[in-house]
Amino acid sequence: MMPSQQSENASRLLVLDDDPDIGQTVRNMTENLGYQCRVTIRPNDFFDALDDWRPTHILLDLVMPEMDGMEVIRHLADRHCDATLIISSGLGNRVVDAASRAASQHQLTMAGVLNKPFSIRDLRRLLGQRPTASPLPRTAAGPLPDITPAMLADAIHNNQIGLAYQPKVRCADATTTVGFEALARWQHPQWGSIPPDRFILLAEREGLIEALTRKVLLQACATLARLRQARGPAADHWSMAVNLSARCLTQFDMADKLVTLCQLHGLEPRHLTLELTETAAMEDGVLALDLLTRLRMKGFQLAIDDFGVGYSSMVQLARLPFSELKLDKTFVAAAGHSREARTIIRSAVDLGHQLDLKVIGEGVENHEALAFLHEAGCDFVQGYYIARPMPREAIGGWLEDREGRC
Ligand code: C2E
Ligand code: CA
Ligand code: CA
Fold first, then answer.
1. 20 to 30 A from 186, CA-CA: which of 7, 63, 149, 255?
2. Element (DSSP H or E) covering residue 181
């Protein structure tokens, strides 16, 4: 079959399905939608087209005689394919959902899944929507250097670790600000902004995380203090969230140090939320219980971060004195197309509420995710649909913009 003539700006859909009838039907459907469509029934032809034709979208059947869809996904990941992927199969929800999760974990960009037989409406919905970013962000523009512990130590010492702030808002109206999460960014003089995924693990491994966290806490508290000064009583209930690694949970006097830090900035402990991942919280059960209990007794807020993806144990969750549960963004991203994800979210919201925790959904990228979280009873939300993480100087403008729109 001759490919349609390639145009740089057109959307190009490449189909791999061993059933030629399905390929032909999809071709008819999508050409009406303005897509150029190319159909392959064998993996070799598919990979040739991938290289020559550079599709913007891929529709992939999971079950094929020569190479199954999971193998194709692995190859796509190895080739750093940046086309938006749709997975289709007649195997039922659980299998396609699992394949979709695997693709996301391989850093592929997923638009969603289709259960066969699917209608043109289903396909149009997926082709038309903004793709869900892979859960682990890709690196910043251009290749980054190999980061050595000495480089990172210097960066911390020389105040190159800055912060981006992402607003958290009330889920019911998606406008009332309840606080911000402070996210570390390494402002490298030569490489620009380096994301935390590139240096937090290294900091933890090399014993630099305490120093890094100190710098983060200082900046985060200073920013909240300034915002409170500028916004007056409206900001009284805002809290600033900071991420804490397990390594930071080893100093028993941490609670006292944090109280002093708050006092220095005219803040109360309730203005600071400490976000811990489940694994961080559970690593040394006894010490964590002592420390976290002290922190809560002093009035700090404690959030369990990335809930649902770590080694979660409901007993541990109930046993540790958290005040907030943050649903992991992979569930929120999948809510639009995965019944399982929706069930997990609903159960986690109920569990959180039963334990008197506020529940926050993060990774909200579109209206559908927001509406679902609202329906599920979630208290707060955070995500690109509300606002992307922003530098301190941009917060005032963002708030004014919101107020203008209310
Ligand atoms: P996290 O604590 O789960 O933070 C949320 C991450 O999700 C942030 O990535 C944020 O930019 C991203 N995000 C927010 N909204 C959306 C959305 O709608 N869609 C998608 N796909 N992503 C969204 P970021 O800033 O790259 O941080 C990555 C991780 O690095 C954080 O995950 C946190 O675990 C860690 N981290 C960041 N700053 C610190 C820090 O100061 N200390 C420690 N220990 N870890 C930090
Ligand atoms: Ca967090
Ligand atoms: Ca998280």
1. 255
2. strand 177-188
Lowest mean pLDDT among 29-33, 207-211, 279-283, 356-360: 279-283
Half-sphere exposure of 126 (CA within 13 A, CB side): 25
Distance in angstroms (rounded) separating the CA atoms of residues 354 and 244 = 25
CB of residue 194 inside a 6 A radius of ligand 1: no
What single letter denotes the amino acid at residue 112? G
Which residue, judged by its Cα, is nearest atom 46 of ligand 1? 243
**Token code pair at residue 39:** 């159909």
Angle (CA) 83 86 88, round 5°: 145
- Looking only at the bridges linking them, the beta strands covering 109-115 and 84-89 are parallel
Instruction: Enter the tokens of residue 402.
Output: 């919101």
Taking the centre of ligand 1 as the mean of its atom positions, its distance from the CA of residue 183, in whole angstroms, is 6
Q: Whose CA is closest to atom 17 on ligand 1?
A: 363
> What is the DSSP track for 45-105?
HHHHHHHHH--SEEEEES--SSS-HHHHHHHHHHTT--SEEEEEESS-HHHHHHHHHHHHH
> What does the pLDDT read at residue 314?
72
Going from the Cα of 180 to the center of ligand 1, the distance in angstroms, rounded, reads 12
Under 8 Å between Cβ of 263 and 296:
no
Please work out whether the CB of residue 200 comes within 6 Å of at least one atom of ligand 1: yes
Q: How far apart are CA 38 and CA 49, in angstroms?
A: 8
3-state secondary structure of 380: strand
The ligand 1 atom nearest the CA atom of 133? 21
* Per-residue model confidence (pLDDT) at position 131: 45
Distance CA 114, CA 150 (A): 48
pLDDT, residue 402, reads 85
SS3 289: helix
Of ligand 1's atoms, which has the minimum distance to the CA of residue 248?
A: 44
Determine the atom of ligand 1 nearest the C-alpha atom of 204: 44
Residue whose structure tokens are 């909240």: 224
